[in-house]
Design brief:
The protein is an all-alpha fold. 75% of the residues lie in helices and 0% in strands. It has helices at residues 9-27, 35-58, 62-83, 95-115, 121-143, 148-177.
């Protein structure tokens, strides 16, 4: 059996990137939260990233395993927190709780960003903008900043998700062509 395995990172990055863009189109006020966003959170943002994390484990990539599995489970937990909020006898989430939830994900992401410093610049951009996004979302919920701040947060999230999509497709296209077509730094 060969150890020559495919790179699972583009799968995980696309799951993260596309789901992040869609959720942040909502956060920017472009459309309401809907079943499509929740479905993306479960299946592409959630399950696809957990699968990518499992594949990274097989490749002995601790960073990829930790990142993809954690963010896949983030998406699953976020959908759960959104869907079950105040339903079925479950107490609703306070804004203070959500602020801490998002702050802690930002803290985790900050340390993951430090780990990227030896990697591609495109990866550094993904993790830096994700750290900023989580902390902007935490501030939104902590201080009830629902106006311009919330819209700006949404646009920052769109950029973050788009940067992950770029990095994913750069890896696929560069590998397929056997040369750098899309630079990653």
């Amino acid at each position: 059996m060969s150890d020559n395995l495919a790179n699972p990172a583009p799968l995980g990055l696309m799951g993260f990137g596309m789901t992040t863009v869609l959720l942040n189109l909502h956060n920017a006020g472009i459309f309401e939260l809907n079943a499509g966003i929740l479905a993306m959170g479960i299946f592409y943002g959630g399950l696809a990233q957990v699968i990518a994390g499992t594949m990274e484990f097989k490749k002995a990539n601790t960073f990829g395993t930790t990142a993809f599995t954690s963010y896949g489970l983030f998406w699953l937990s976020l959908v759960f927190l959104t869907y079950f909020n105040g339903k079925f006898g479950i107490a609703g989430n306070s804004m203070a709780f959500m602020a801490w939830y998002l702050f802690m994900w930002g803290l985790f992401t900050f340390f993951m960003w430090i780990a990227t410093w030896k990697g591609a610049r495109a990866l550094q951009v993904v993790f830096l903008t994700l750290t900023i996004l989580f902390w902007m979302l935490a501030a939104r919920d902590a201080f009830d900043w629902t106006g311009t701040w919330a819209v700006l947060t949404g646009y920052e999230g769109i950029f973050c998700g788009a940067s992950a999509i770029y990095f994913a497709m750069a890896q696929v296209i560069n590998e397929y062509h056997g040369k750098v077509v899309m630079p990653v730094g």
